[in-house]
Design goal:
- By secondary structure, this protein is α+β, with helices and mostly antiparallel strands.
- The chain has 17 helices and 45 strands.
- A hairpin with a 5-residue loop joins strand 5 and strand 6.
Length: 755
């Protein structure tokens, strides 16, 4: 019987990773497939691993050939697939797929009739950690069926073969170039333009393993820039019949593909540097000048130097920007332009011209707390590349604004804080006087409305440049504040900007319990609610159950099997396509008219941990908005106490996983890992780490895990964070991020000084 889907997997010297790849293919929920493994002249045990797997699963076959590279191996595999298969996919042998990957991609094509479907890609790092691959963040931000690259230009970044399923009749007009690097680009990008329509899935369908030895990670080599330029040049010339499309594509090449090689010019030898200028020049020679002129400033200046072959200045500018990213001086008043220390010869004024977006407002909130009923905010605000080294050049004002443009001026004090300059990551400007302190009287936030949202706006004026905008987060630790039993102020960051909501509370949770395969939630309300609704955060699914009322008190019984049925819906994010580590539900009451009301979680509501089907647990916690939150999750550790002693860090809490697992520390940037021992006693845990062990950690943010789940902080422990200690000239701070996840931040430290 002809399979619906043919999968081609080139294999070359990947014995360490091949087994995991093949296992992920074997457990695909779409099992009507064949897998053609092409041994591309492996010299290790890869071929033996492939043959052994094929002997166990008749859907797998092995084809051998002399080593010819990835493109040749893929083409060979296609020729050995079953005639009549409806769909075709390619997988690299060191990567892994979630179990529903092909089900989702093929299912989408069955519905849409598109020529191919493309899904989100996660980066697979050390220890199996998964993170969103930055290249696919924008293209896969949302699911789009029957779309096209000319309708959604971010798809120009979707240029790999392995996250796709192709309709075979569409693919048969194509093949991969052989004997080159970057063989995907000259096939996939023309396919985007040639397709009648494509499907784009937000779901993760591919886990791309990051390996230092991977060919895609080699940059400062002549062959790499030569092959990449040839690939993008072929695509660009193929679009000459549609000038508008060509301009869009050429811009993406200059900002992404060839910028990838320009960045490493300082690391390359003279042969690489000369090759870059030669090959990049071949591309820019056929680019419309309007494209070069329309690039952002930091690209525009560098491509001008490259086009003029001013190699020494270009390398010096790249080295300078490594130390001081996006940094320059500002010259002029009416017609402002950028000035770079690395430039030694004149550059046309239009190349250096500054647009308003080149001098953006940098505003961050570094601290927030309630003191005697008043909200105190600390942070900084400056215009990037406009110095704020002295007080008179750092004028600031702050106000709160509602959507209907009602404004509330705030009291602001300017603060001298040298750490702001130190944290700015550049060496050209001083921002010591960019600090501020703001005081907010919550009583002024109340209006006649049941709920009023105020957005914090900061205005900055320095050296004749004025900017205003919202304030982002940089370590502020916020908490809901109750003015009385039924009125509260909720400080949160929405779309990355700080806001305050003053609202009256009509319903709140008072307790929770579980028995007889049911979760029981109790509370009080002043409304005529008739049902309780758990709304699944990751999809449109919801569970609604009737309320039992006793005056203002209510009780709701939620069957646990209904929660299990909803588990895992929505975009795929978890390893191997299993249920995600956590499925969260908002808790709402439903009135007779269908209107929903959030159920508040008042101060003092105890942490809830209840057993759930499948070895999971239900956690009843508090959201960043101060509302009740039910999470169906893998067993998580909860840190209830974080204390620095004279010689150690002590973390105590609870964990219901049943295994004596260590505390894993995972560096957020480098994926480096470390472990600390944990003492388990029943469902209690205790971590006691001597300072000596902590000093071995590199600078940066370390995320804390027990098992595969992050360590969380119940709301009762929030007031104790951040908890900081200076050890050996470095700062160690235990903090919470994403509202309730525990992290350890390690830095060289910089002492602040206010005046």
């Amino acid at each position: 019987m002809t399979p619906r889907l043919s999968v081609v997997v080139p294999v070359h010297n990947v014995e360490e990773y091949l087994g995991a790849c093949l296992e992920s293919l074997a457990r695909q929920s779409l099992d009507d497939l064949e897998v053609v493994l092409v041994d591309d002249g492996s010299t290790d045990a890869s071929a033996a691993v492939a043959r052994e797997f094929a002997a166990r699963d008749e859907r797998f076959t092995v084809v051998g050939r002399e080593n010819g590279g990835l493109g040749a191996a893929r083409n060979t595999g296609v020729r050995h697939t079953a005639p009549g298969a409806e769909y075709l996919a390619f997988v690299d042998s060191d990567d892994v797929l979630p179990s529903r990957a092909f089900e989702l991609l093929v299912g989408s094509l069955d519905k849409s009739g598109s020529d191919f479907a493309s899904g989100n890609v996660l980066r697979l790092g050390a220890g199996g950690r998964l993170r969103q691959h930055p290249l696919f963040t924008e293209p896969m931000r949302s699911t789009r069926r029957a779309t096209h690259v000319t309708d959604y230009w971010p798809l120009l970044l979707d240029r790999i073969a392995c996250n796709k399923v192709f309709r075979r009749e569409f693919w048969d007009a194509r093949s991969f170039p052989e004997g080159v690097l970057y063989e995907d680009i000259p096939v996939i990008l023309p396919a985007h333009f040639a397709a009648r329509s494509v499907d784009v899935l937000q779901d993760a369908v591919y886990y791309w393993r990051f390996r230092d030895s991977s060919i895609t990670n080699k940059r400062a080599v002549v062959r790499g820039v030569a092959d990449r330029t040839a690939a993008v040049l072929g695509v660009s010339r193929g679009l000459m019949g549609t000038p508008g499309h060509k301009k869009r594509y050429d811009e993406s090449v200059l900002r992404e593909d060839l910028w990838y090689f320009m960045q490493v010019l300082p690391d390359g030898d003279p042969a690489y540097q000369e090759a870059f200028l030669r090959y990049a020049g071949e591309f820019t020679d056929q680019v419309d000048p309007e494209v070069l002129a329309g690039l952002p400033l930091h690209h525009r200046v560098k491509w001008h130097l490259a086009c003029e072959k001013r190699l020494e200045e270009l390398v010096a500018l790249l080295e300078f920007e490594r130390r001081s990213p996006r940094t320059h001086r500002v010259r002029g008043v009416r017609r402002r332009s950028a000035e770079y220390p690395a430039l030694t010869a004149p550059v046309p004024r239009d190349v250096l011209a500054l647009a308003p977006g080149d001098l953006p407002l940098e505003a961050r909130l570094t601290g927030a707390g309630w003191h005697e009923g008043t909200l105190k905010l600390t942070g900084y605000g400056y215009v990037r590349n406009v110095p704020a080294q002295v007080r008179r050049h750092a004028l600031k004002a702050a106000w709160l604004r509602t959507p209907d443009r009602r404004a509330l001026p705030l009291r602001l004090r300017r603060v001298n804080d040298p750490s702001i300059t130190a944290r700015s990551g550049q060496e050209l400007h001083g921002y010591d006087w960019a600090g501020f302190e703001i005081t907010v009287d919550p009583a002024r936030l109340l209006t006649e409305a049941a709920s009023t949202t105020w957005k914090l706006v900061l205005g900055v004026l320095g050296h004749g440049v004025a900017r205003r905008g919202g304030v982002a987060d940089e370590g502020a630790h916020l908490g809901v504040h109750y003015l009385d039993e039924h009125t509260r102020v909720v400080p949160v960051f929405v779309n990355g900007r700080f806001q305050l909501t003053a609202e009256r509370v009509h319903t709140w949770l008072t307790g929770h319990d579980s028995h007889d395969d049911r979760l029981t939630l109790t509370g009080e309300t002043t409304t005529r609610a008739v049902a309780l609704r758990l709304g699944h955060w990751h999809s449109d699914a919801a569970i609604q159950v009737p309320l039992a009322r006793d005056g203002g008190r209510f009780t709701a019984e939620v069957p646990l099997d209904e929660l299990a049925q909803v588990r895992g819906r929505g975009p795929v994010r978890a390893p191997h396509g299993e249920a995600r580590p956590a499925d969260s539900y908002s808790v709402q009451l439903v009135r007779p008219d269908g209107k929903r009301l959030a159920v508040a979680a008042p101060p003092g509501l105890p942490l809830g941990r209840h057993k759930a089907p499948g070895g999971r647990e239900l956690a009843v916690t508090v959201s960043a908005w101060g509302n009740a939150l039910v999470t169906d999750q893998l067993p998580h550790a909860f840190a209830e106490s974080i204390v620095w002693t004279d010689n150690s860090l002590v973390v105590e809490g609870c964990y219901g996983g049943g295994e004596d697992l260590p505390l894993r520390l995972c560096h957020a940037a480098t994926e480096e890992e470390a472990e600390l021992p944990v003492r388990h006693a029943g469902d209690r845990l205790r971590v006691e780490s001597a300072y000596e062990a902590l000093t071995l950690l590199t600078d940066g943010t370390w995320q804390l895990y027990v098992g595969d789940a992050p360590v969380r902080v119940p709301v009762a422990a929030h007031p104790g964070l951040p908890a900081a200690r200076r050890i050996g000239g470095r700062d160690f701070s235990v903090e919470r991020r994403s509202h309730d996840q525990l992290v350890l931040v390690v830095s060289k430290g910089a002492s602040a000084c206010a005046s």
